[in-house]
């Protein structure tokens, strides 16, 4: 009965673009590579499209079959029949920015599964619910209302999605040794449940490094921990200072620096951990933390190099607008490159990948080199940035092929209207359009070209036949060797 009381109706899924990554990514969903897992994702996406009127021109007749009632039933099926479990089990999500992003409904799905998991089911889903119940019952001196249990569970699911190992959470099998106690400990740090921390800290001090549910205790403390919790947890000072700086927590950084009476930076060598600490603390979105760190660094100029240029590239990569603006005002060099596997990546490159228009504008205003950046922005589907780069006279080399290969019809049209030749679209880009089943984009390309190369037509036709893309095969036959 208690489990039934905790059941919640299936929430409306937010919009999740089907190709939410560049199609060349091994993690991208493609309509031409449907299996029994991502077919369910495609159906759910189709249902959401019908609800939001966000009809995708490339899907053709598939949009017409979605009705309001059908959409609701699809969403109920996704949640009630656990249809996303296998997807999450097989997906290797990581915290690193360049790894595949989690679908935006991940926390909602996880919360629903936790609420409704039966005894004997997935151990970590049951553990999540158990931890939420303990926080609900034991936090404070008076009983809490049911709504507080819901808020605890929602918060813990959000933390699990943010820092946990999703593939492990949906993995069958028993818990590892001490995993339940470690999970409760990290959750208590997250929720600042001091009395639970007191009861658990002796078991884990110096031993609880990481947990499948909630990740690292140091990271959790650095982002969410309180000064009171620090006294109990006693995390590794070096680790939590630079991580707190990365999360922009100026008061926590000041507090942690003051925990040691004498840092004795005058005794440092370049290999000393304290030297590395002051290098890492300046990797922060907070201008206040940057300046606070620089106060320490200015006292020992013989030990520390000027890090403005490297910091600018990192700030652009992580989308830290205020820090980018501050570093540019300090005179940071926009053209510091990092050679990553043959690709030269400067601050503008990262901003074009991420799609942060404000950072792109700041860098352009400071005369950043735009060579190759149009293709980068087009590849990642950032139409507004493409328009900004056009206004600044950036070169368009490979941009239209990248846009076509990604199915970004608006960018293709923008580039064509700007005067980019349709003949710059590579044959491989045409093949990608076929694989995406983007009928509208294919029509646009052929219309603007006034026909196409017979060899490219034959290659596309072979791909359509091989992949069983009947609609594209019919369209290709209709156009013929124009």
UniProtKB/TrEMBL annotation:
Entry keyword annotation includes Cell inner membrane: no
Pfam family, one: Ank_2
SUPFAM superfamilies (alphabetical): Ankyrin repeat
Alphabetically ordered keywords of this record: ANK repeat, Repeat
Keyword Repeat: yes
Source organism superkingdom: Eukaryota
Database matches in InterPro entries: Ankyrin_rpt, Ankyrin_rpt-contain_sf, Dendritic_Spine_Reg/Scaffold
Protein name (Swiss-Prot/TrEMBL): Ankyrin
């Amino acid at each position: 009965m208690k489990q039934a009381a905790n059941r919640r109706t299936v929430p409306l899924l937010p919009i999740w673009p089907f190709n939410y990554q560049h199609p060349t990514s091994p993690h991208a969903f493609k309509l031409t590579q449907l299996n029994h897992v991502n077919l369910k994702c495609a159906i759910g996406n189709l249902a959401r499209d019908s609800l939001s009127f966000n009809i995708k021109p490339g899907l053709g007749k598939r949009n017409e079959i979605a009705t309001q009632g059908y959409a609701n039933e699809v969403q109920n099926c996704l949640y009630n029949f656990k249809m996303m479990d296998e997807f999450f089990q097989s997906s290797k999500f990581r915290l690193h920015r360049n790894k595949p992003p989690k679908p935006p409904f991940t926390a909602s799905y996880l919360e629903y599964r936790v609420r409704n998991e039966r005894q004997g089911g997935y151990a970590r889903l049951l553990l999540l619910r158990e931890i939420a119940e303990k926080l609900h019952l034991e936090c404070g001196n008076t009983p809490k209302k049911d709504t507080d249990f819901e808020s605890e569970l929602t918060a813990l699911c959000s933390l699990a999605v943010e820092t946990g190992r999703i593939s492990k959470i949906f993995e069958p099998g028993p818990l590892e040794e001490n995993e339940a106690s470690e999970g409760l400990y990290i959750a208590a740090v997250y929720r600042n449940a001091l009395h639970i921390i007191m009861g658990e800290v002796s078991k884990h001090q110096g031993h609880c490094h990481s947990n499948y549910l909630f990740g690292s205790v140091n990271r959790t403390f650095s982002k969410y921990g309180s000064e009171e919790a620090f006294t109990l947890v006693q995390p590794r000072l070096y680790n939590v200072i630079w991580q707190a700086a990365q999360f922009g927590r100026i008061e926590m950084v000041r507090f942690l620096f003051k925990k040691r009476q004498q840092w004795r930076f005058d005794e440092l060598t370049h290999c000393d951990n304290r030297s590395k600490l002051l290098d890492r603390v300046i990797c922060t979105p907070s201008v206040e933390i940057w300046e606070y760190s620089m106060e320490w660094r200015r006292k020992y100029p013989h030990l520390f190099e000027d890090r403005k240029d490297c910091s600018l590239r990192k700030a652009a990569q992580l989308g830290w607008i205020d820090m980018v603006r501050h570093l540019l005002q300090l005179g940071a060099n926009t053209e510091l490159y990092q050679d990553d596997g043959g690709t030269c990546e400067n601050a503008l490159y990262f901003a074009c990948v991420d799609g942060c228009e404000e950072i792109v504008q700041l860098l352009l205003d400071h005369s950043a080199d735009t060579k190759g950046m149009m293709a980068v922005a087009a590849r990642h589907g950032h139409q507004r940035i493409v328009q900004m780069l056009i206004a600044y006279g950036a070169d368009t080399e490979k941009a239209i092929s990248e846009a076509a290969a990604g199915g970004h019809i608006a960018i293709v049209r923008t580039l064509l209207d700007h005067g980019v030749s349709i003949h710059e679209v590579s044959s491989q880009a045409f093949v990608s359009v076929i694989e995406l089943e983007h009928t509208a984009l294919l029509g646009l390309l052929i219309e603007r070209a006034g026909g196409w190369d017979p060899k490219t037509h034959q290659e596309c036709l072979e791909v359509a036949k091989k992949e069983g893309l009947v609609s594209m095969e019919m369209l290709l036959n209709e156009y013929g060797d124009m």
